[in-house]
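> example.struct
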């Protein structure tokens, strides 16, 4: 049976070893901290970002209301599907006051036709809030992007630290070789 043999190989940087350097121990702790940061920090960043985005979308749903508006100008007709054009519209706010302004509406509509606008709590025209599904997908994507950003930053910082440790090891090898190398060689001539 080979129990424990793989674990010894895996934990070699922490074991007592005459060839182990301080840089090796530091690198072992660095790799452990990196994986802990990726696992805990990345997950935490992703969850917090997704929750914050979900809160923003819920607030948009609570603050925005649809109202019927009457077009005051014609919109150009086109054969492009889903085309929207800017047009002057008039609508009645929640407080009963009449407002006019510009908004994007479907193309090929005549003046006098009705359309739905979304307004905020102050009665200003705003965009339609995302649907529950779109909000959930966007919150998930933002959370994943946040987690990946934390992971990328952590890997970049650890890579820089490992590069610095490699430079120290190479310099140490150079100093040691300068001491030992001349004893090994002999002059020919």
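> example.seq
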């Amino acid at each position: 049976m080979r129990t424990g043999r793989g674990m010894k190989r895996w934990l070699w940087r922490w074991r007592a070893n005459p060839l182990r350097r301080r840089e090796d121990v530091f690198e072992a702790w660095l790799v452990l901290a990196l994986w802990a940061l990726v696992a805990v920090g990345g997950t935490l960043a992703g969850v917090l970002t997704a929750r914050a985005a979900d809160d923003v979308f819920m607030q948009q749903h609570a603050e925005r209301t649809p109202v019927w508006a009457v077009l005051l100008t014609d919109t150009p007709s086109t054969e492009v599907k889903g085309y929207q054009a800017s047009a002057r519209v008039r609508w009645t706010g929640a407080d009963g006051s009449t407002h006019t302004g510009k908004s994007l509406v479907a193309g090929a509509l005549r003046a006098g036709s009705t359309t739905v606008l979304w307004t905020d709590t102050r009665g200003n025209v705003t965009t339609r809030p995302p649907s529950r599904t779109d909000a959930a997908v966007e919150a998930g994507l933002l959370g994943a992007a946040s987690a990946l950003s934390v992971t990328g930053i952590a890997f970049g910082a650890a890579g820089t630290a490992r590069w610095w440790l490699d430079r120290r090891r190479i310099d140490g090898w150079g100093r040691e070789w300068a001491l030992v190398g001349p004893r090994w060689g002999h002059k020919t001539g």
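> remarks
Residues 23-63+132-150 form one domain.
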